[in-house]
Amino acid sequence: MLTSYQGRDAAGERAKSVHPGERGEEPAGWSRGWAERRACSNGSVPQVSGLDGQTQSIFEDAFASLGRVDNVSMVMGFHPQYLESFLRTQHYLLQMDGPLSLPCRHYIGIMAAARHQCSYLVNLHVNDFLQVGGDSKWLKGLESAPRKLQALGELNKLLAHRPWLLTKEHMESLLKAEENSWSLAEVIHAVVLLTHYHSLASFTFGCGVSPELHGDGGHTFRAPSLSGYCVCDIANGNGVTDDLLANQLAMETSGEVEVLMERMKQLQEGRDEEEASQEEMATRFEREKTESMLVTTTEDEESLTSSDVSRHFEDPSYGYKDFSRRGEHVPTFRVQDYSWEDHGYSLVNRLYPDVGQLLDEKFQMAYNLTYNTMATHQGVDTTMLRRAIWNYIHCMFGIRYDDYDYGEINELLDRNFKVYIKTIVCSPEKTTKRMYESFWRQFQHSEKVHVNLLMMEARMQAELLYALRAITRYMT
Fold first, then answer.
1. For the chain, percent helix, then strand, then coil, each to nearest 5?
2. What is the rounded distance in angstroms from the CA atom of residue 104 to the CA atom of residue 145?
3. 272-283: pLDDT as tens digits
4. Residue 144 buriedness (CB in 10 A; 0-12 / 13-18 / 19+)
5. 283-333: pLDDT as tens digits
6. Whole-number mean pLDDT of the chain?
7. Whole-number Cα distances in Å, 280 to 136, 387, 396, 401, 403
8. How many CB atoms lie within 10 A of CB 105?
9. Segment 382-410, tens digit of pLDDT
C-alpha cells in the first residue's frame, strides 16, 4: 500500500482514455441536452449518442443488475473507468454477502441521503428497500424503524456534519448496547454505507442530477427557483438566457486556464529550487485551515427541509460547523498517525472482506484519473491541481499531510472554486446552479464532473478516517 494519494500519477496512466470532448462531449447535470441522457422508462437499456463501447457495456451490466441505469450513473459515464469501479463497489455493498440484511442496507442509505435532504437518493432507496422485502412501516419515520437502526442516528449525524467529534464512546454505545447491540462487522458495514451515501449526495447536488423523468419528483432539483430560472428548464438545459450567460462568462474568463497552468509551472519550479521547512509547512496548514473557515457556503437562497425526507433522521437543525471555531480546539488529524493505507484499509478488509480493496481502488481511480488535458490544452500534468483539491477538502476536515505544502492551495484554487468545494462537501443541499457556473468557466463539463468525483471520494475518505480511528481506539 502507498502512504498517501500524493504522487500516484504513475498508476493513473491506466486511467487514460479518449477525452469526452474528443468524441463530441455531451453535457451533464445543469447543461444543455441533459434530458437525452436519462434512463429509459420502457424497460430498455438507454442508447446514449456519442458513448464509446466500454461505457455502453457498463450501462448494460448495470441495467442487468439493477433493472435501471440511473442519472448518477449517466453523469459518471463521462469517466467509464471510474464508473466501473463505483458500480462494482456499490453492488458489493448493497447486494453481495455481508453483515447486514438487504433491507437494512437500503434503509441506512435512506438515512444517510436524508441527512443532506437528497430526495433523489432517498426515493431510489425507498423503492429498492420495498423490492427487497423491507417493512413499509419503517418508512413512516425513523421512530418506526427497529431500535437497532434508530441507534445509528447519532453516528449518521456526526459523520455527515462534524466527523471530527466522533469518539470511541460513540462506537461503544452501539457495540455494548444492552439490547440490540451491533457487531464490529455490522458497524463497519454501516459506516461504509453512511459515508458512501453522504458523499454520493454531494455528487448528486454538485452535478445538478435530477430524478428520472418517470420517477417521483421528476424534473425537480430543489424547492426554490435557481437564479430566476425554472427548475425544469435547468434540468433539461433549456433557455436562450443560459447561452447568453455562458458566452458572457467565457469572455470574462478568457485566459483563465493559461493563468492556472502558469501558476502550476511556477509552483513546480519553486518546489524544485527550495523546499519549505517542517515548521513552515505546519504554519501554512494552520493558515489554510483558518482561511477555510472564512469561506461561506450560504447563498441568497436557503435550502428547505422536506418533511418527507426529514422524517428519516433526527435533529434536522444540526448541520455543518467549522471544526475549529473560536473558543474551541479540535486536534489536527495527522495522516502519519492514522491513515487509510496503513490502518483503515486493513481494518475494513478484516471485518468486511474485500470491501477495503474495493474502496481503495475507487479512491485511487478518482485521485489518479487523468486525460492530461485542461480545457483545450493537451499534454498537461494535472497532478498538482488534483492534489490541491483533495488536500483542501481534507484540510477543511482538520486532516493534515506533513509532506504537503498548503501554500499551493491558495495559488491554485480561487475563491469561487473554494465556495463551490466547501458547499458540495459540507452542505451540498445549499448548492446552486450559479456556483457550478462560477468556477472553471472555460473547462469542459466532463472536467467539472471529474472534480465532483474527486470531491466525493475525498469527503468519503475523510469521514471514514474519523470513524475507523474511533473504532480502532475502541478495540485497543
1. 60, 0, 40
2. 10
3. 667 777 777 777
4. middle
5. 777 777 777 766 766 544 444 445 577 777 777 878 888 766 555 677 889
6. 79
7. 57, 19, 19, 13, 11
8. 22
9. 999 999 999 999 999 999 999 999 999 99
Query: Mean pLDDT throughout 94-115?
Result: 96
Rounded to whole angstroms, how far apart are CA atoms 442 and 285? 30
**Spatial distance between the Cα atoms of 388 and 406, rounded to a whole number of angstroms:** 8
Instruction: Identify the residue whose cell numbers are 477543511.
Output: 396
Contacts of 300 (CB under 8 A, 6+ apart): none
Q: Which residues pair with 377 in a beta bridge?
A: 374
Q: Any idea how long the chain is?
A: 476
Instruction: Give the residue extent of every domain in the chain.
Output: 32-476
Distance CA(423)–CA(261), nearest Å, equals 25
Q: Which of 104, 118, 395, 426 is catalytic?
A: 118
pLDDT at 415 over 80: yes
Residue 168 vs residues 184, 324, 474: alpha-carbon distances, Å: 13, 20, 5
**Separation of alpha carbons 454 and 465, rounded Å:** 17
| Separation of alpha carbons 262 and 454, rounded Å | 22
Give the Cα separation of 104 and 70 in Å (integer).
Answer: 21
User: Cell digits for 470?
Assistant: 474511533
118 is catalytic: yes
Q: What is the pLDDT of residue 60?
A: 76
| Residues ≥6 apart with Cβ < 8 Å to 328 | none
CA distances to 6, 326, 327, 331 from 294, in Å: 26, 12, 16, 19
Amino acid at 25: E
Sequence-distant (6+) residues with CB within 8 A of 30 are: 207, 208, 234, 235, 237, 433, 436, 437
